[in-house]
Design a protein that fits this description.
Helices cover about 5% and strands about 45% of the residues. It is mostly beta strands and about 375 residues long. It has 3 domains: about 120 residues, Sandwich (Immunoglobulin-like); about 70 residues, SH3 Domains (SH3 type barrels), CATH 2.30.30; about 100 residues, Immunoglobulin-like. Strands 1, 2, 3, 4, 5 and 6 form a 6-stranded mixed β-sheet that branches. Strands 17, 19, 20, 23, 24 and 25 form a 6-stranded mixed β-sheet that branches. Strands 14-13-12-9-15 form a 5-stranded antiparallel β-sheet, with no helix packed on it. The protein starts with a helix and ends in a 5-residue tail after the last strand.
Length: about 375
């Protein structure tokens, strides 16, 4: 099982090696696809697409598509975070080749370059190659038949002469020089694409290692229907992990390895979304250098949050005439406060609060409109 530092290393590895990656100079958030990898072969079944997006300006939404001409599968609200992990369930309509497309946008509506991954859904099923055990051939025995004819000396007699015939069958000995060549230690899987190696036979299990395209995994176990195989860790760590048999070509007899019992499926973390409500001191503010005093130049924003898990982050957001966000410290219990303002530019702002718990569940408040005025209003 990867340690937290190894999980970040895996994310960086995928960013630089698995699928398209675009420079920040293109504008907008940068997105990449973690799973499935480009070139993957997956069964015709519901599929979980996992992606990341990052932006210094904050990620507002992460969109998922299954090709450029089809409607979106859906999007995940990024909550204006600088780094967002997003998942989307998708059921392919039929077997075939699909291009998955993930694109992120920031709070200003600027979209980054899309990340693409071409996959083969319901690809070829690789039938295990059965290799019969080698058998040392029995060397042939060559025998020669030697006939020795002896003619008797005729003796005068009144009877006919009968020749004497002697047949000698010498035994022949043949020494075999055939040396059988040792076969492979067991069945193997040759990866046709990069594949995750997991702690159990299924995508619900955690990623433990990786089998790269062209790499051979030595199979030492399997599940009951031969859809997942248990191989030695490709990185050489000495342990074992599970990889889908659909990602490569099987060689050898799978019946020669044991059927292993699957480890317990990890229980998903269940967390209800935090419920957020906000109150604002004054919905009208005056600009920095406004000589009027009918309204303040700053105002407190209070948030009350109900959550089933410990909160890790509470943030005040605003957009419109100007955009930004600040952290909201706790004022005790489930109450949080931050000061909004001051602003140099007049206009209208949309103000809201987001709360994220330790499990990553995020809730958002309703949006409140705040007017920034450069003149005197009642």
């Amino acid at each position: 099982m990867l340690k937290p530092i190894m999980q970040w290393a895996a994310i960086l590895f995928v960013l630089f090696s698995a699928g398209p990656c675009y420079p920040a100079g293109h504008g907008g958030p940068v997105a990449w696809i973690d799973q499935p990898l480009d070139g993957s072969v997956v069964p015709l079944a519901p599929l979980t697409i996992t992606a990341h997006a990052t932006s210094k300006a904050g990620v507002q939404r992460v969109w998922f598509y299954w090709d450029t001409k089809s409607p979106a599968i859906g999007y995940v609200n990024g909550g204006n975070l600088t780094l967002v992990e997003a998942e989307m369930k998708w059921t392919p309509p039929k077997a075939g080749e699909y291009t998955l497309w993930v694109q992120a946008e920031d709070e200003n509506g600027t979209s980054g370059d899309p990340a693409l991954a071409t996959i083969d859904v319901g690809g070829p099923i690789f039938t295990p190659l059965v290799v019969l055990p080698s058998k040392t051939p029995t060397p042939p025995v060559f025998q020669t038949l030697e006939k020795v004819f002896t003619t008797a000396t005729p003796t005068p007699s009144s009877t006919a002469l009968t020749p004497s015939l002697t047949v000698t069958l010498p035994s022949a000995t043949l020494t075999s020089t055939f040396t059988p060549t040792p076969g492979p230690a067991g069945p193997t899987l040759l990866a046709n694409a990069n594949a995750n190696c997991r702690t159990g036979p299924g995508v619900d299990y955690e990623i433990d290692d990786g089998l790269h395209k062209g790499q051979v995994g030595i199979i030492e176990g399997r599940n009951a229907d031969n859809t997942w195989v248990w191989i030695r860790e490709p990185s050489g760590g000495g342990g074992h992990c599970w990889v889908s048999a659909s990602v490569g070509t099987l060689s050898g007899d799978l019946n020669s390895v044991l059927i292993l019992k699957s480890p317990p499926t990890p229980k998903p973390v269940v967390s209800s979304l935090p419920q957020v409500s906000i109150q604002i001191g004054d919905a009208t503010l005056e600009t920095d250098h406004n000589p009027c005093t009918n309204h303040p130049k700053t105002t407190p924003v209070n948030a009350t949050i109900s959550a089933s898990a410990t909160l890790s982050k509470v943030t005040l957001h605003w957009s419109g005439a100007t955009s930004g966000s600040i952290s909201m410290p706790s004022t005790g219990g489930n109450h949080y406060q931050a000061i909004l303002g001051s602003f140099a530019k007049a206009g209208t702002l949309s103000v809201w609060v987001t709360a994220v718990d330790k499990n990553g569940a995020q809730g958002a408040s309703q949006t409140i409109s705040v007017k920034i005025t450069s003149g005197c209003v009642p």
